[in-house]
Amino acid sequence: MDYASLASEYKETFNAEPQRVFFSPGRINLIGEYTDFNGGHVFPAAISLGTYGAFSKRDDRTVRMFSANLPKAGTIEFSLDDLSYNDADNWTKYFKGMLFELAKQGKTIDQGFDLYVHGNLPDGSGLSSSASVEMLMAQILLDAYGQDISRVDLVKAGQLVENDYLGLNTGIMDQFAVFMGKKDQAILLDTNTLKYQYAPVKMDGYVVVIMNTKKRRELTDSKYNERRAQCEEALRRLQTKLDIQTLGDLNGDQFDENSYLINDDILIKRARHAVVENQRTLRAFDALQNNDLTTFGNLVNASHVSLHYDFAVTGTELDTLVETAWQQPGVLGARMTGAGFGGCAIAIVKESNVDAFEKAVGDTYNEKIGHPAEFYIAHLADGSHELTK
Ligand code: ADP
Ligand code: MG
Description:
This protein is of the alpha+beta class. It has 2 domains: 198 residues, Ribosomal Protein S5, domain 2 (2-Layer Sandwich); 172 residues, GHMP kinase, C-terminal domain (Alpha-Beta Plaits, 2-Layer Sandwich). Helix content is 40%, strand content 21%. It has 11 helices and 13 strands. The protein has a 6-stranded mixed beta sheet with strand order 5-4-6-3-1-13. A 4-stranded antiparallel beta sheet has the order 10-11-9-12. β7 and β8 form a beta hairpin. α4 runs antiparallel to α5 and α10 runs antiparallel to α11. The longest helix is centred in the last third of the chain and has 25 residues. The radius of gyration is 21 Å and the shape is globular. It starts with a helix and ends with a strand. The mean pLDDT is 95. The protein binds adenosine-5'-diphosphate and magnesium ion. The site of adenosine-5'-diphosphate (ADP) has 15 residues, from β6 and α3.
C-alpha cells in the first residue's frame, strides 16, 4: 500500500481526493513481556506493518469514517459535539476516544473530517492494531490540526483511551512503540519513569520473523487481569518489609532473599517472572549494544521459558511455534510476543534460512494444531508519520 493506492480507495468511498495520507505502525516487543505494569523495562519496536489513513478536513463538525478491514460496518458517523462513548461507534471508538481524552485536556478541534482506514496488521494477532489506530489519530491531530502537544503526551492520551474511555487495563508500551519508533532501532523504555533510549538493531544477516498462531486471543482479558492482580498481591506482600514501589525495583538476588514474604507458590512464580524478565531486558539491551547476538538470542529464549513455566501465558499454539523454531538451523532465539494465549511469536532467523524455517515450522504447526500458521518478516520501522505523495 502507498499514497496512490490509499488515495484511490478513499476516492471510491468519499468521491473526492484525500488531502493527506498517514501511516501508523504496529509493534513487536523484542523482550520484556508483562513487565510494563510491574514498573519494569520493555524493549519494543515499531514495524513496517500497520494502519494507513487517507484524510480530508470537512467544513462542518461531522466525522465520517470507513475501514477497508471492516467494510460490513459501513461508514460510521459522529459529531465533534458529542464525543461520549457509544456502542454504535464500533471500531471508530479508538479515534473518538482520542478526541475525547484530548478535549478533556482542552485540546479541541473545530472542523470534522472524512477518514478512510486500511490496515495490513493481521487481525487480533497481538501486534497492537488498537494502538496503531489510536496513534494514527494522534498523528493527524499533530500534522493536520497543528495541535500543540508533545509526542509523549499523545502517547499518554492513547493509553487513556484504553484505560479510561474503554476500561481496559493496559500499559503504555504499545502506544509508545507505535508513536516513538525509529527505523532499524528498538526502544528500551522504563515504563515506570518513561525514560527511554534507542538501541540500533544491527542483526547482520539475521531478520525478525513474526509467526502468527492464527488463534484469536480468547480469555486474554480475564487472564491478563488475573496476572495483574497476582503481581499486585505479590508486591503487597513484599512491601510488608521492603520499601519498593514495583516488582521492577528488585534484582534477582533481592527477590531470592525476600520471596519467603510472598509465601505462595503461584504468586512467587508470577513475581519471579516480572523481576527476572526486567533484568533480562536490561541485559538484552546491553547485548545488542555490544553486537552480541548470541547472548541476545539466549535471553529471548529464556524469556519464553519464563513466560511458559512461571507466568503461564503461552499455550500449546505459541509453545509449538517457539519450540519448533528453536530446533531449526540458523535460529538465534524465539519467544512469544504480546499478551500470549495465542497471537504471535517472534524468531530471529538467519536470512538465508528463512524459507526453510517457515516451511519446517509451518508443517509441524499445521500437523500438530490442525490449521496453518502465518509468517511475516518484521522490518523495524519509523513511528506514525505522514506519507508524501
Ligand atoms: P490488538 O492486539 O491488535 O491491539 P485489540 O483488540 O486491542 O487488538 O484491537 C483491535 C481492534 O482495533 C479491532 O477490533 C478494531 O476495532 C480496531 N482496529 C484495528 N485496526 C483496524 C482497522 N484497520 N480498521 C478498523 N478498526 C481497526
Ligand atoms: Mg490492543
